[in-house]
Design a protein that fits this description.
The protein is mostly helical. It has 48 helices and 10 strands. A hairpin with a 2-residue loop joins strand 9 (923-925) and strand 10 (928-930).
Length: 998
């Protein structure tokens, strides 16, 4: 059928708005794109302004593509689906395939048209659906960047007030990259408060806060602009009286101006014989309604009955509709339908849209459609919606039904009790899973919960599946606690059914969710519930359940039981011959061995898991396996192997949005880069990235880690009070698990550094139950606590505690681990410090020499000055000339090392020790020979007096120790108090500790 060509409303005014938009178009052509958001009331002319800008952009060589958001249920990312489908229709296959890039299979999840264009396109890679969104977002971002390199792009997103949350999140994601590519996005939305949804308000707040959007409000037309519009509509200048009257009636709303004009023309008497507006016409004689819906209603009343009925059915279908669907629900002969469509087109109530397939139309404005809908009763509207749902479903084959499920479900919901609730629930379920696969998790959650509410009680298996759908969507949104509750309900329902295979799979997934949620105690219970259903059958289901229980038992410290489960799970997996299952069992083994700091076993199981999972394309599990393999390499000092792992894992984790793998990557990368580069600026970036990842995951374990690492870095930079606050926050957030203890260990080491002996000993006594048990496997946090506590008490000079903890440090070394968690310090150095304090001189010297060799060979730049400083302290205690000379050389190197890294407090500590050894020597620091000034302007002698004050010595004792008179000591103290601005020995002592003088 032939359609009337659309006639555009005359474009008038908007000088400031179009000038700003054309400025952005010009910037985009130079490679600096952006996002512009046009707001305004309904009918004010936002879309018309976009069309004017689009015409200019096309004239400048831009490609212009438009997508729409709709008020009724549709596929997520609908505007981008329309944009990519249009590009697919207009592009040659070769350039299109290149523009889609590696993400083409994932993009085809949401744009099925791509698979029709490229039937040989590979299937998308397997990954958990909660990671699909990041991959999809990155795929669309990269696609936009590629096409923009070929030709500048203008994307128009209409009616963002109707957008689903996934579409708005994608817009936020794209906005970050637009300034560096030749793409401009222009979005329109209604801005009356009733139209701005909370989703849109949140998105606007984010975009404005980040300064990623140019906001423009489209105002109403002025009286002169209304006159220009009337002139454009009639082809003749409008009399001033008519212009003023129309402006008064419409208040300058462009759509209302046009509707009033057509109403007056159709009423007769507005135009003279030349088609010009009569100068004698009186608007008040035409009874113009004060409401645009009433004006549109009067225009609709002039249609024939068949045309109005067809338009009403079309309004029920939606803002856009196809001829075939309207024919299916219209129940009239073809000629009547064609006449009705042509009549509506002539009245400019609907507009034909370009289409290679069946004829498609849209309402000239949403207000026309709303006018039609309010004119029919609720019962009639429900039955019309059911007719549309029936026609949609009957017109789809199986593959298409999944794509149209959201539309069908929406019409069934609007049909209310007229529709079969089980059918509605079924369509909602299909639509929810489709949304989940597309990364539209908010839609998936809403659809799945609605389906669950409508499902009859007797549908137990369907209810379990829907509970899992709800839990999966919640997990994807990082709502861990609610997700765990959903998994628990689903598992309980499956247990009642006694179906082993889904129970085993749910158990495996469930235990990992509990692990991420830091609810470790529940993992064993869930696995045992699964085993109760599976029984003693020797199959893959039992192997998977045992692997899940292995993880839980390992985290509870039950090493032997976890090992037994892992061994049986491995035997069952090998007998089953499933590479994927075997890879999962190896992954569980790698994880559980890492929890006990058995990094050699972690690496062995991790390597096998990586090979198996890579061969099966199990990308999510592969990310986890690579992460465990990487930590095994880093903390054994195998940096070259780690480089190869991280080169594969970093883009893989980013592509699949594996937040836990990415966080582990930062964890091992922080320690590796600290060792190799000693660059605190680089470590700052890693620490910030870790903090962002921890907040995104809302995981208490990672939040605790992020705070503790920030405290370590702040301590290195020399702000010890701030470091203490961060370390305390890390310990406060720490929860029971394999890392528990390490946070408190770093506080003990920090208290030793600042000389707070009583507080350090009290904290050690408080966590003493967490210390490892000799001669048996212990969790990683327990080993870390022992290593840090041994170093801390040794620095404080507590020989008895150092002697008691030293054997545990030796036992930790025997695991093959070289570096401790979080800061990457050498365990060998901690052993040396503990042995020295314990009076084990021979062992201490051997440890120090080994640590020096390790620091050179790895290399470990952060450890070089640390080992030298503590080695020098040890040698000075031996009081021989040879030892003093070696200590002197080590201290000179320690000062230079700390200075190069940028650790002023540690540098000052090394300098202070060097001053005691050689008080008159000038030491090279950086490029010059200087002695770094003491804090507070103190002299060497005053600093020496202050150190003795901090020990609690009296003036008489200090005088005797320094071979000075008591009067001289009194004078020194007076000078010290004056320089420091303090009035007591306690305040001076506090200053000395804060500034590293002691």
């Amino acid at each position: 059928m032939q359609s009337i060509v659309e006639v555009l409303t005359p474009f008038v005014g908007r000088e400031a708005e179009i000038r700003e938009l054309l400025r952005l178009v010009d910037r985009t052509s130079a490679g600096h794109g952006g996002l512009a958001l046009l707001s305004g009331e309904p009918g004010v002319g936002k879309s018309r302004l976009c069309r004017e800008v689009a015409a200019s952009a096309e004239a400048w060589g831009f490609r212009v593509l438009t997508g729409h958001c709709y008020p009724q249920g549709n596929l997520p990312y609908m505007p981008w689906i329309e944009i990519i489908e249009t590009a697919a229709r207009e592009s040659s296959p070769g350039p299109l395939r290149e523009a889609l890039g590696d993400a083409a299979p994932e993009l085809a999840r949401v744009v099925p048209e791509l698979r029709r264009v490229f039937p040989d396109m590979p299937q998308p890679r397997e990954m958990p659906t909660d990671q699909l969104r990041r991959h999809l977002f990155n795929g669309i971002r990269d696609h936009v960047a590629r096409v923009s390199r070929l030709r500048p792009q203008l994307f128009i997103l209409e009616d963002l007030h109707c957008a689903d949350e996934a579409t708005l999140l994608l817009l936020e994601h794209l906005a970050e990259s637009l300034p560096s590519i030749s793409a401009l996005i222009v979005g329109t939305f209604r801005d009356p408060p009733a139209d701005v949804t909370s989703l849109l308000a949140d998105a606007l707040t984010t975009l404005v806060r980040r300064r990623q959007a140019h906001q423009l409000r489209v105002p109403r037309l002025s009286p002169s602009e209304v006159g220009m519009m009337l002139c454009g509509l009639s082809g003749h200048p409008a009399p001033a009286a008519v212009t003023e009257a129309v402006h008064a009636e419409t208040d300058g709303n462009a759509f209302f101006v046009e509707e009033v004009f057509h109403h007056l023309v159709e009423s007769g008497g507005l135009l003279d014989e030349r088609g010009a507006i009569s100068a004698d016409v009186r608007i008040d004689e035409f009874d113009v309604p004060a409401n645009v819906l009433l004006v549109t209603g009067q225009r609709l009343d002039r249609l024939t009955e068949p045309a109005r009925r067809m338009l009403t059915l079309a309004a029920v279908i939606g803002r856009r509709f196809g001829y075939g669907l309207l024919e299916a629900v219209g129940d009239v002969d073809q000629e009547t339908l064609l006449d009705a469509i042509e009549e509506a087109e002539r009245a400019r109530l609907i507009v034909a849209e370009p289409s290679r397939g069946e004829a498609r139309f849209r309402f000239a404005h949403e207000l026309v459609r709303q006018t039609l809908l309010v004119g029919i009763s609720a019962p009639r509207r429900q039955r019309y919606h059911l007719r549309v749902a029936d026609a949609l479903e009957q017109g789809c084959h199986a593959a298409e039904l999944e794509l149209r499920a959201a539309d069908v479900a929406d019409h069934l919901l609007r049909a209310g009790t007229v529709a079969d609730p089980k059918r509605t629930a079924c369509m909602l379920t299909i639509a929810g899973r489709r949304a989940q696969q597309a990364g539209a998790f908010e839609d998936a959650l809403r659809l799945s919960r609605t389906a669950l509410a409508m499902l009859p009680d007797q549908s137990a298996r369907e209810r379990a599946d829907l509970l899992l759908d709800v839990a999966l969507a919640l997990r994807s949104l990082c709502r861990w606690e609610e997700a765990v509750e959903g998994w628990d309900k689903a598992l309980a329902t499956l247990e009642e059914l006694g179906d082993a295979e889904p129970v085993a799979r749910v158990c495996w997934d469930f235990t990992w969710q509990l692990l991420f949620a830091h609810r470790h105690a529940e993992m064993v219970t869930i696995a045992e519930r699964s085993l109760a259903v599976i029984g003693e059958c020797a199959g893959g289901d039992r192997g998977r359940a045992l692997a899940a229980r292995c993880l839980g038992l390992a985290l509870q410290g039950e090493f032997e039981a976890a090992s037994a489960d892992a061994e049986e799970a491995m035997s069952l997996a090998q007998a089953a011959g499933e590479a994927g299952l075997l890879g999962e069992v190896c992954l569980a083994q790698a994880a559980s061995r890492y929890y006990y700091m058995e990094l050699g076993s972690t690496a062995e199981a991790g390597r096998r898991s990586v090979e198996l999972l890579r061969s099966t394309g199990a990308w999510w599990n592969l990310c986890a396996a690579l992460a465990f393999l990487d930590v095994a390499h880093v903390f054994r000092g195998r940096f070259v192997e780690s480089d190869a792992i991280q080169a594969e894992l970093e883009p893989l984790a980013e592509r699949h949005g594996h937040s836990a793998a990415a966080a582990t990557l930062h964890h091992s990368g922080f320690c590796r880069d600290a060792a190799r580069f000693g660059d605190l600026g680089m470590l700052d970036e890693i620490s910030r990235a870790q903090s962002v990842a921890a907040r995104d995951m809302a995981n208490p374990g990672w939040l605790a880690y992020a705070n503790t690492v920030a405290g370590i870095l702040t301590q290195w930079r020399g702000d010890w009070p701030a470091a203490r606050r961060q370390l305390d926050e890390g310990a406060r957030l720490a929860v029971p698990g394999f890392w528990f203890g390490v946070h408190h260990g770093f506080i003990i080491a920090h208290l030793a550094l600042t000389g707070e002996r009583a507080a350090a000993v009290a904290l050690l006594d408080q966590v003493s139950e967490t210390l490892p048990r000799p001669g048996r496997p212990n969790l990683l946090g327990q080993w870390s606590l022992a290593i840090l506590a041994a170093e801390g008490v040794a620095v404080l000079g507590d020989a008895d505690r150092a002697r008691a903890l030293y054997p545990l440090v030796i036992e930790a070394l025997r695991t093959g681990t070289l570096m401790r968690q979080y800061d990457g310090a050498l365990i060998e150095t901690a052993a040396a410090i503990a042995a020295a304090a314990a009076g084990l001189d021979e062992q201490a010297e051997e440890h120090f020499e080994t640590a020096l060799r390790q620091a050179e060979q790895l290399p470990h730049l952060m450890e070089r000055p640390r080992t030298r400083y503590h080695y020098a302290r040890f040698l000075l205690g031996r009081r021989s000339r040879t030892h003093s000379e070696r200590a002197h050389a080590l201290l000179v190197e320690a000062v230079a090392g700390y200075h190069a890294i940028g650790m002023p407090r540690h540098e000052r500590m090394a300098l202070d020790l060097l001053r005691r050894l050689a008080p008159h020597e000038r030491v090279r620091v950086g490029a010059r020979r200087v002695v770094t000034p003491l804090p507070g302007g103190l002299t060497e002698r005053e600093a020496e007096v202050l150190r003795l004050v901090t020990t609690g010595s009296t003036n008489r004792t200090i005088a005797a120790d320094l071979h000075l008179s008591e009067r001289t000591i009194n004078r020194h103290l007076s000078n010290i108090f004056g320089k420091l601005g303090v009035g007591s020995r306690a305040a001076a002592t506090s200053f000395a500790h804060r500034q590293g003088i002691v």
